[in-house]
C-alpha cells in the first residue's frame, strides 16, 4: 500500500512512500501514518498545489513579504533622518563631529563621547523608536564585521565602502540636497514670470572659503517675499565673476535674468564699481535698475557712528 501524498511531496522517505505490506495491522499503521508530521506536511503541500499555490510560490511569497517589511523599515528610518536634518537646519546647528568619532565600529568606545549632533540625535531618537534602534544596532554590527575583515586582510578603507547604513555623511548630504530642491521649486512656483529684486552678500567661512548668499525679493499673493535662493562658492570675486556666477545660477533654475529690477549689495568696488563692478553689468539700456546699499552695510555704519559717539562721551566725562 502506498501514500500518494508522501510519494509526491514528502521530503523524507516513509513506510508508505516505499510501500507498506503490513496488512495484518494495516488499520493501526495507517492511523499512525496519518497522524505523523511528515504526512500532514505532504497533505498541506498538496492542498497548496491544488489551489495553484506551488511550493515555489509559497517560498517566493515569504521572501517578498520579508523584502516588503525591510523596505518599510528603511522608509521609516529615512523619515526619521529627514526630521532630524530639518530640526538641525531650523536651529542652524552643525551636523558632523570629528572624522574619527563618526565611525560606527567605534560607536560604543568609552572615549567616543561626542559623535556630532546628527548622530547623537539619531542615538537619542533610537532609544524611543524600536525600528530605528534595530537599524542602528544592525549597522554598528555590520560596520564592526567589515572592519575586522579589513584588518585580517591588512587593508585600509576610508568611509563605509558598499555598506549601506543610511547614517553616513553622503546620505545626509543627499537629504539636504533634496530639501534644497523642494524649497527652490516652491520659490520658482511663487515667482513665476514676474520681476524681482536681487540681494547679494559674501563672507568667508571657517575654512576661509568665500561664499555668496543670493536672495531674491518678489510679490506673492499681495505680500513681499524674501527668499534665500542659493549659497554659492565664489571662485572669481571680480564684478565679471559675480555676473557670470549669477547668470549661470538663474539659467540652471530657469529664472529670467532680465526680470531683475533692483539690486542691493555692499559698497565694495567689485559690486558697485562704475566700470568693472557688478552693478553696471546688471544694468540694461531698457531699464535703470535702482541700487541701494545692503542692510548689513547700513547697520555697520550706524554701529560705527554710535561707537565713535560713545568713545567721545567717555573722553568728555573723564575730563
TrEMBL record:
The keyword Transmembrane helix applies. Residues 78-277 form the DUF4371 domain. The chain crosses the membrane at residues 291-312. Signal peptide: none annotated. Coiled coil: none annotated. InterPro entries: DUF4371. Keywords: Membrane, Transmembrane, Transmembrane helix. The keyword Transmembrane helix applies. PANTHER family: DUF4371 DOMAIN-CONTAINING PROTEIN, PTHR45749. This is DUF4371 domain-containing protein. It comes from Macrosiphum euphorbiae (potato aphid).
